[in-house]
Amino acid sequence: MGGQFEGSEWSEYINRRQDTNDLMLANAKTGETRLFFEDRDKAWVVPSPLDWIEQDGTKKSADLLWISERDGWRHAYRVDRKRVRRGWITRV
């Protein structure tokens, strides 16, 4: 999977064992790439559609909404785009 977001290209990579899902951001102008978010699970990861949360109506300050079952339960995480911190939105 891949797409564009705020001048960056993003790419999602799931390894063959399907236990790691990496989300990479790349700057098309500079060629710089970085790992933005990594989801790991001992059994497997379940790919989910990506959604961006706009804080001020623009994508400049958007965070990532990520759905994961990494602990055996489905949770929604909000991933801060600038500081790459994640936090639960939902808890069981």
Overview of the molecule:
There is one protein chain. The protein is mostly beta strands. It has one domain (2-88). It has strands at 2-5, 8-14, 20-27, 33-40, 51-53, 63-68, 75-79, 86-88. Strand 6 and strand 7 (75-79) form a beta hairpin. The mean pLDDT is 78.
Question: Can you give me a brief rundown of this structure?
Answer:
By secondary structure, the protein is mainly β.
Strand share of the residues?
Answer: over 45%
Tally of structural domains? 1
Q: What's the mean pLDDT score?
A: 78
Give the total of beta strands.
8
* Continuous helix count: 0
Shape verdict: globular
Helix/strand class: mainly beta
Radius of gyration, in Å, reads: 13 Å
Order of helices and strands: EEEEEEEE
Q: Can you summarize the main beta sheet?
A: 4 strands, antiparallel
What's the end-to-end separation, in Å?
29 Å
What spatial order of strands do you see in the largest sheet?
A: 1-2-3-4
Helix content: under 10%
Residue runs with pLDDT of under 50 for 5 or more positions: none
What are the key terms here?
92 residues, mainly beta, four-stranded antiparallel β-sheet, 8 strands
Task: Set out the fold topology.
Layout: E1 2-5, E2 8-14, E3 20-27, E4 33-40, E5 51-53, E6 63-68, E7 75-79, E8 86-88
Antiparallel strand pairs: 1-2, 2-3, 3-4, 5-6, 6-7, 7-8
